[in-house]
Amino acid sequence: MQQPFILEARNVSYTYPDGTTALSTVSTGFRQGEKIAVLGANGAGKTTLFLHLNGIFKPTGGTILFNDTPLIYDRRSLRELRSTVQIVFQEPDTQLFSARAYQDISFGALNLGLPQDEVQRRVEAALLTADIEHLRDKPTHFLSHGEKKRVAIAGALVMNPQVLIIDEPTACVDPRHQQELLGLFDMLNSRGTTILLSTHDVELAWRWADRILVMHKGKIEGEGDPLSIFSDEPLLRQAGLYKPLMLEVFEALQQKDVVHAGAPPPRSNKAVIELIKNKF
Questions:
Q1: Number of C-alpha atoms within 13 angstroms, CB side, residue 153?
Q2: Within 10 Å of residue 200's Cβ, how many Cβ atoms?
């Protein structure tokens, strides 16, 4: 029997004040411990969906459910939601507003009214988890883009979230720091945190996600495991996506009978190398 959803969208629609329809009858849900990637072009509705899951936006139609209960948009209910569901925006400068990293990370815990010693314990744990202890006293405006992202993530972690939503976490981040961020997400996920991220990077989604949502023009057009999503040629064409190189290479090797037809496709560089080594 599957776990119940922590968060669920049921027939959620949203229209911006200028009349732009950003979401149209979107229905999906997220369970504890999942790693979900949301793919789609700019304007597909990814960020708008995220802002609904955190209660920042209220649907113009449909319902957001939190622990199987329809969300009520009063201060108490939103505070409870946001103590469990944290969002990290694509641009960290929109999220960081304190003079120094430590102050910024501590803000959420202080806002909960926690005792000072508990705030300090949580901040120290978040600094350690995000591997930014050396940045604690740094002015936020002197940090690099990647460092700011880590401080923003630490500010979310201080709330001990069950669900961490990250909008385009690898945008404008160099390859080494991308791998470090993905390693951080994997570590958090191993502790039971649900990780939900948006990305344009099909290679990242293929390697990392347990489940993929494909959004196009405000709708979820596809949802499933990475292999089923990236094997759906009409879906990829509709959403303007392409197959990950790793999967294309694997399929080419199968066609040449280099790889057994029943072999599982590799999801990492190491798996590709092992696959080839075992055949040659």
A1: 28
A2: 17
The span from the CA of 184 to the CA of 277, in Å, is 30
pLDDT tens profile 167-178: 988 877 777 878
Task: Tell me the pLDDT band of 69, cut-offs 50, 70 and 90.
Answer: very high
Alpha carbons within 13 angstroms on the beta-carbon side of residue 174 total: 5
Burial class (CB in 10 A: 0-12, 13-18, 19+), 104: buried
Which positions ≥6 away from 254 have C-beta within 8 Å?
260, 261, 263
Contact 70, 63 (CB under 8 A): yes
Identity (one letter) of the amino acid at 194? Answer: T
- Answer whether residue 280 shows pLDDT above 60: no
Task: Quick: pLDDT tens for 99-118.
Answer: 789 999 998 888 888 899 99
Cα–Cα distances in angstroms (integers) from residue 269 to residues 126, 203, 227, 261, in the given order:
30, 11, 16, 20
In three-state secondary structure terms, 1 is coil
Q: E strand or H helix at 274, and its extent?
A: helix 269-279
Dist CA 201 CA 217 (whole Å): 18
CATH class of 7-240: alpha beta
Nearest one of 95, 197, 113, 204 to 150, comparing CA atoms = 95
Question: What torsion, rounded to 10 degrees, do the Cα atoms 160, 163, 166, 167 define?
Answer: -140
What residue spans in the chain does CATH classification 3.40.50.300 cover? 7-240
